[in-house]
Amino acid sequence: MKSGCLVCGKDLVYLDSPEEIACSLCGRVHATSVRCAGGHFVCDDCHRLPAEDLIEKTCLETRVADPLLLAISLMRQPAIKMHGPEHHFLVPAVLLASYSLIAGKHDALGGWLKKARERAGQVKGGSCGTLGACGAAIGTGIFVSIISGATPLSRKEWMLSNLVTARSLHEIALAGGPRCCKRNTYIAILAASSFVNEEWGVVLPTGQGVACEFSDLNRECRKMECPFYPGEEGHPPGV
Ligand SMILES: [Zn+2]
Ligand SMILES: [Zn+2]
């Protein structure tokens, strides 16, 4: 799966001579020798932002409607570690960005992302093992709770928010341990995407499946036992 530019997903291009381009995330103009085929550029200062800032800014500016592609582009950035609680925000953030683009609700996205970040911040690292509730699954509940406007007093919205967490958590559990924030992120995004399709008829484009590129960074990777491991012949990438 190709994923280059954080803003549009196009491949990066290396220039013969530097060009002055405004950073797509912060707007400051820099001379750069690398930009995407669509003309976007993200400056070094933005690439060095803490994970949650990078996720929030990118999801606000991106036009990548595929939440899996956007998640993978973000997970390639050094700020986002192999495992870590930043994935609890990453999951609802890419889903909200995708939903806002597909459903024509981009004006709401800034406020949604702030809410999601605050709520995801309450889910500590390691919740999968210590609470029996993976933060990526809870991230899908945060996503549906925000787009449906659920509160503890809602009826249908309350049900839907808990149902999407249940569905993604069920699939994450069946995939088995040990922890893998990448695997659980893929599963959560796919489960939430099919959920919004069934409930609201909104199709979040999740491409042709995932060939995970983070295996070498994960000491506990189950490799051929993981549906997302690119592996050898006869083991197609999971969907
Ligand atoms: Zn671009
Ligand atoms: Zn910048």
Write a structural description:
With 239 residues, the chain is mainly alpha-helical. The protein has two domains: 1-48, no CATH class; 50-225, no CATH class. Helices cover 46% and strands 8% of the residues. It has helices at 44-47, 51-61, 67-75, 86-102, 109-120, 127-130, 135-148, 156-175, 181-200; strands spanning 12-22, 29-36. A two-stranded antiparallel sheet has the order 1-2. Strand 1 (12-22) and strand 2 form a beta hairpin. Helix 7 packs parallel to helix 9 (181-200). The longest helix has 20 residues, at 156-175. It is globular, with a radius of gyration of 18 Å. The model has no long low-confidence stretch (mean pLDDT 93). Residues 5, 7-8, 10, 36, 38, 40 line the site of one zinc ion.
Keywords, please?
46% helix; 2 strands; 239 residues; 9 helices; binds zinc ion; two-stranded antiparallel ribbon
Summarize the structure.
This protein is mainly α. Helices cover 46% and strands 8% of the residues.
Following the backbone from N to C, one meets helices and strands in this order, namely: EEHHHHHHHHH
User: What class would the helix/strand composition place it in?
Assistant: mainly alpha
Give the neighbour order of strands across the main sheet: 1-2
Low-confidence stretches: none
- How is the biggest beta sheet arranged? 2 strands, antiparallel
Q: Which descriptor suits the 3D outline? A: globular
Note the beta-strand portion.
Answer: 5-15%
User: Ends: how far apart?
Assistant: 12 Å
Helix content: 40-55%
Counting structural domains, the number is 2
Ligands (ions, cofactors included): zinc ion
Count all strands and give the number.
Answer: 2
- Mean of residue pLDDT values: 93
How many H/I helices? Answer: 9
- C-alpha-based Rg, rounded: 18 Å
